Amino acid sequence: MKICCIGAGYVGGPTMAVIAIKCPDIEVAVVDISVPRIAAWNSDQLPIYEPGLDGVVKECRGRNLFFSTDVEKHVREADIVFVSVNTPTKTRGLGAGKAADLTYWESAARMIADVSKSDKIVVEKSTVPVKTAEAIEKILTHNSKGIKFQILSNPEFLAEGTAIQDLFNPDRVLIGGRETPEGNKAVQALKEVYAHWVPEERILTTNLWSAELSKLAANAFLAQRISSVNAMSALCEATGADVTQVSYAVGKDTRIGPKFLNASVGFGGSCFQKDILNLVYICECNGLPEVAEYWKQVIKINDYQKNRFVNRVVSSMFNTVSNKKIAILGFAFKKDTGDTRETPAIDVCKGLLGDKARLSIYDPQVTEDQVQRDLSMNKFDWDHPLHLQPMSPTTVKQVSCVWDAYEATKDAHGICILTEWDEFKKLDFKRIYDNMQKPAFVFDGRNIVNADELREIGFIVYSIGKPLDPWLKDLPAVA
Ligand SMILES: NC(=O)C1=CN([C@@H]2O[C@H](COP(=O)(O)OP(=O)(O)OC[C@H]3O[C@@H](n4cnc5c(N)ncnc54)[C@H](O)[C@@H]3O)[C@@H](O)[C@H]2O)C=CC1
Ligand SMILES: O=C(O)[C@H]1O[C@H](OP(=O)(O)OP(=O)(O)OC[C@H]2O[C@@H](n3ccc(=O)[nH]c3=O)[C@H](O)[C@@H]2O)[C@H](O)[C@@H](O)[C@@H]1O
Description:
By secondary structure, the chain is α/β, with parallel strands linked by helices. It contains 18 helices and 14 strands. The strands form two sheets. The chain has an eight-stranded mixed β-sheet with strand order 3-2-1-4-5-6-7-8, with helices on both faces. It binds 1,4-dihydronicotinamide adenine dinucleotide and uridine-5'-diphosphate-glucuronic acid.
């Protein structure tokens, strides 16, 4: 059997590498229109940082895993074609700011129809609006020259930073297909691929629309938990409760569970916001404004949390950060990834720059070039293939990036911790304090420092959702 995956990104690359390592009898080709991305997959410096990925790729690359820009050849030869291309939020026209832009999906589908010479199973791996399979089916069958295509929905649930362990040991694999004999056969064929390593009871099969909607629903529920705990964090600060204690107590209820209840400066990542906006749009299109409004609130609270954080920083520092050096520790949207798509750090940095701060940024996995791109890019432009993203000629002058947390914090007035990298927990804060301007502030957007210890050293500390430092008590949290 031959598998081809269109789109060698955060999903396509790791997912196919794991299929290749677990299924030595299957030949897997990952193809992409981006020449540098494929070159990187074929080099020692993979295009994405993901713990454990290097080892998996090294073991099967050149054996039964291939990365190529020859998209048409590999699609033509494949029995199963996964499509894992970008599905960004539309920035123009109908549904702008909400609906999914299916440009890349449609062009992939048309290309599949053009080059195919044998029947194929086409698998939606990208996250798409519910009912997309119907549109894809139409594109394929109207251009098929008699070739038969079966469309399956097989959404991906991996999280970045833990992608390899998530793929090795998934909570579930979801496969949706048409409820016809041909549809069932296609579902069975894909099920057999996963059955190489996933226990049968964890492979769920549903109809197409349930599979498509379950992916949007899962991301909406996960993001909703974070917005719920973040909303509580604001109330904790106002009342003297401690959000970590509240989360622990709430999560002990087995019906709620302990995971995904960490208050933060806000959730980021390429999907939560995009997928919820997409869900909101679908609800509106289906005449369900109340349901749309309900999910919109998850995004609103996330934006509120990021704003609230910036306002805390500015109001604590005598209501101005103009020309003050602020150290930003962490820029990626979470630890163990270099991904900065929709990271809360972008909004926080933009907020501080709006108040004329000077920023010194350190993230162990993010380059200066990436930070500059992110800070000068328009909303949602980041989610297009790299070579199609508009290049901004301007650099943000008040921003510099360094490769060391001590360098970033030297002479700074304040520190904002925006990613929970493990190395930040082990920093020598006494040394940092001695080299900072006084009073020295720490704003912990991830609740990773020991606030009491830092206060002992002399810092004024703000931790999300924790009882406030006396310094902060009478200052307005929201300007
Ligand atoms: N990043 C994540 O953790 C997850 C992402 N998803 C979904 O998976 C999809 C892909 O996401 P990522 O892998 O993060 O995106 P990505 O941007 O890392 O990768 C997408 C790749 O597709 C390529 N591409 C676009 N159009 C193409 C075409 N017509 N032919 C060949 N290649 C093409 C791009 O050059 C790019 O390399 C999205 O729909 C996303 O919502 C789902 C679960 C997890
Ligand atoms: O569709 C997707 O793209 C993926 O989106 C998320 O995965 P990911 O965005 O990679 O990472 P998460 O671990 O979910 O974190 C998302 C954001 O929420 C934040 N977060 C997470 C958990 C928490 O308790 N608090 C919190 O603020 C993280 O710091 C991060 O900014 C989902 O967890 C995956 O199941 C899904 O496949």
